[in-house]
Amino acid sequence: MTTQTQENTGRTIAIGAAAGIAAGLVANLMRKSVVQAPTVIAGQWDQALAAEHKAVLAIINKAAETKDTQTGLRSFLLMQIKHALGKHSFAEENSIYAKMRDLGMPEGADHLNHEHGYIKQALFDLTEMDKSDAGWAPRMRELGSLVAEHAGEEENDMFPKLKAKLTDAENKHLTAAMNKEAFKLA
What we know:
Elements: H1 3-42, H2 45-64, H3 71-102, H4 106-128, H5 136-165, H6 168-185
Helix pairs in contact: 1-2, 1-6, 2-3, 2-5, 3-4, 3-6, 4-5
């Protein structure tokens, strides 16, 4: 092989590798955009988070209705729940709860953050359980109760209090900040 052929081959490989990396990055950004789109479309931060609560509760309810023999479906639904709640809690903790603390609501933010810990514990317990265990569906229903209670507290108490403290421009900024945080894990 001549030196010129070797250089051309090396250049072709480098161009192909760069194109592959670029395509992978674009595909990942598009996937993240699709995952975050329903939240962005839902509107302001409080409406978007309420929509996410509703969506994850629907998946939890579906998982709680599975039979002990549907281990594959249970694993798949649990994976979806963990991803949705992970992204959701990350966005809340890094934007909404932080803003609550900034505006003199640290007890509320800390309380909500504390509840996230118990939700994460329930997710861990479900992950560790055998998916054919007769106790799996009842534990999933317990998770649903935890999430529903937490969401109700946010939507009916804490979020309206926070939103009332913010101007329209500040609410718009908080929406953008929340979506930016959520996009990181989308």
